[in-house]
Design brief:
With 283 residues, this protein is α/β, with parallel strands linked by helices. The chain is 42% helix and 19% strand. The strands form two sheets. A seven-stranded mixed β-sheet has the order 6-2-1-7-8-10-9. Strands 3-5-4 form a three-stranded antiparallel β-sheet. Mean pLDDT is 91; it is low at 1-6.
Length: 283
């Protein structure tokens, strides 16, 4: 009798494939068969919230031509997409930016640096960029007049977290003490210690929603530096090339794009040259 009241919500192979095909077509993310249990687990909470007792009911709702169905698609994508990030992740990129790119831009007379964190997740990457820029300006007086950072993601859920800029205190533990004092506020709670980026850092970052499957990224504007790290791994090779091409179109001549440590543009016909590990400059 218990199973009648606590039904096991099981996603069939055909249901999973329908979802996987939709996600790949509309978001570009690959969903191989081994992801089925993960998708089932993450969507079960949505079924419970909507009081559905089967994935058949849920899929009928998601793919119905109604406004509620369209709203649920966005919530479904939020649940499925994986977000993993932390402050100063793959720190060699920030070192290259500080030691090579920014001095080069300064020598060229560039005054206003435009940066973009594409696939920003919960915000640690764009806030790290803001800290890197602030540190450079602090240590190099009268260098750049201004900088601004655009941060985009497809998930409205992670963008809300990023905008709030509140994180578990453990995420900032490994940072140098002077950086923590300069850029973070600390909560007074012992049971749930948290940190928050200070207002002057938060205001340097503008958050927007972007689907990498959009036909172009022109509305994002031209940039000097683009970080798009650990995003391409979710796409197949043709989609990867399309995404990098659209990103490169928004990169100013001589600008730089950073990819994740396991990502490559090898074999792609793009106006980029490799200048450091997973670091490319527009030709």
């Amino acid at each position: 009798m218990d199973s009648l009241f606590n039904p096991i919500l099981t996603l069939s192979d055909s249901q999973f494939q329908k979802l996987a095909d939709f996600i790949h077509k509309n978001v570009g993310i690959k969903m191989p068969a081994e992801k089925k249990i993960m998708v089932q687990s993450r969507l079960t909470s949505r079924l419970k919230t909507l009081n559905f007792t089967s994935f058949d009911e849920y899929l009928d709702y998601v793919f119905s031509p109604t406004s509620k169905g369209r709203e649920e698609i966005a919530l479904m994508i939020n649940q499925i997409t994986t977000n993993l990030t932390n402050f100063f992740r793959e720190s060699n990129h920030f070192d290259f930016m500080t030691n090579t790119i920014l001095p080069e831009f300064l020598q060229k007379g560039i005054q206003n640096i435009e940066l973009w964190s594409a696939g920003c997740s919960t915000g640690q990457e764009p806030y790290t960029l803001a800290i890197v820029m602030e540190e450079y300006l602090r240590q190099n007086k009268n260098s750049f007049s201004a900088f601004s950072i655009l941060a985009t993601d497809i998930s409205s859920r992670v963008l809300d977290t990023a905008l709030n800029a509140v994180y578990p205190a453990s995420e900032a533990e490994s940072l140098p003490l002077e950086l923590k004092k300069r850029y973070f506020l600390k909560s007074k709670s012992d049971s749930n210690p948290q940190v928050r980026l200070k207002p002057f850092i938060r205001e340097k970052v503008t958050f927007k929603r972007l689907n990498f499957m959009d036909s172009s990224y022109k509305e994002m504007g031209k940039k000097h530096i683009i970080f798009c790290r650990n995003v391409l791994i979710y796409f197949d090779k043709p989609t990867q090339e399309k995404v990098v091409r659209k990103l490169t179109e928004q990169l100013l001549p001589g600008g730089y794009i950073f990819l994740g440590h396991s990502e490559t543009i090898f074999g792609m016909d793009l106006p980029l040259k490799n200048v450091a590990p997973t670091t490319f400059q527009k030709i």
